[in-house]
Amino acid sequence: MNFNNVKVPKMPGSGSASALLKLGAIVGLGVYGVANSLYVVDCGHRAIVYSRIVGGLKDEVYPPGAHFMIPWFERPIIYDVRVRPHLVEKTLLNRDSEMVKIGLGVLTHPVPDQVLTIYRKFGKNYNEEVLTPLIHETLIVVVAQYNANQLITQREAVSREIRKILTERASIFNIAIDDVSITSVKFGKEFQAAIEAKQVARQEAERDKLLVEKAELDKRCADIRAQSAQLIGQAIANDQAVKEI
User: Fold this and answer.
1) Pair 173, 159: CB distance under 8 Å
2) DSSP for the chain?
3) Helix pair angle (132-143, 155-171), 10° resolution
4) pLDDT digits (tens, 9 = 90+) for 174-204
């Protein structure tokens, strides 16, 4: 039998199924592409984009909101630009070469429109690379200008001096300083004992002064009472003499 002339009947709907499969694949790819073409930058953040096309970072900083990118070829890098606290504790020498342990709180944030420059130089770890060494260097310079008593009694002035110098130095690296505050000042045990002894002596001196002032006041009151009694006695005596006349 010759099968060459035999006609094979077509399956009903086979062409429609193939078209639907193609359409589904196209739609699926479209949905995947759209879903992976969008990224969102939250408030308090900025984004920079690495592009395989240009072989590096694109020269743009993206603000909060939704942004487009080319899937696989581009990758966003999200940068946190919110104010962050940094607590530092360091042992230093003051003006009198005495060991003092300073606790310092610093509020900082990267300058938002300069995150591309910061990332290119230091990556995301700019705190460890730049900020911590800057704080330590500034503390060494400032604390060396004050003696122990000044560090204790002029804490706000010392904090302002630290903030002034730190702000100038950090601005070179596009880091903003929002606030600086000394949180603690600690000396060695012997020096701390000497300070406490001075405080006790000062308190005792003030107490002795109050006792002396009280004694003087009591004496003046006694003198006034004695003078008053004498005047009253004289008045009574004079009154009796007048009556006898």
Assistant:
1) no
2) ---TTPPPPPPTTHHHHHHHHHHHHHHHHHHHHHHTTEEEEPTTEEEEEEETTTTEE-S--B-SEEEE--TTTEEEEEEE-S-EEEEEEEEEE-TTS-EEEEEEEEEEEE-GGGHHHHHHHHTT-HIIIIIHHHHHHHHHHHHTT--HHHHHHTHHHHHHHHHHHHHHHHHTTTEEEEEEEEEEEEE-HHHHHHHHHHHHHHHHHHHHHHHHHHHHHHHHHHHHHHHHHHHHHHHHHHHHHHHH-
3) 140
4) 999 999 999 999 887 777 676 677 778 888 8
Q: In sequence order, what are the residues at sequence separation of 6 or more whose Cβ sits closer than 8 angstroms to the Cβ of residue 50?
A: 56, 57, 58, 74, 75, 76, 77
Q: Spell out the residues 6+ positions from residue 20 whose beta carbon is closer than 8 angstroms to its own.
A: none
For the residues 111-118, what does the mean pLDDT come to?
94
How far apart are the C-alpha atoms of 124 and 116, rounded to whole Å?
Answer: 10
3-state SS track over 2-30: CCCCCCCCCCCCHHHHHHHHHHHHHHHHH
CA torsion angle for 128, 134, 136, 137 (degrees, to 10)?
140
Structure tokens at 33: 């592409």
Give CA–CA dist 183/205, Å, rounded. Answer: 30
Q: What is the pLDDT of residue 107?
A: 95
Q: How many CB atoms lie within 10 A of CB 78?
A: 15
What is the rounded radius of gyration, in angstroms, for the C-alpha atoms of the chain?
A: 42
